[in-house]
Amino acid sequence: MRRHFDRHQPTPARIAVSEEPVALTFDGTFFGRGYGLMVYRAMGKNIHWQEMESETLAIMEQGLRHLATQGWCFSSLTIDGRKGAVSLIKRLFPSVPVQLCLFHQKAIVRRYLTTRPKTRCGKEIRALVSFLAHIDEACFLACLADIKAHDADFLKERNEQGQFRHRKLRSALRSLTTNASLLYTWKRHPELNIPTTTNSCDGSFAHWKNKVKIHRGLRKHRRAKMIQTLLAQT
Question: Do residues 220 and 36 lie in contact, with contact meaning Cβ atoms separated by under 8 Å?
Answer without folding.
Answer: no
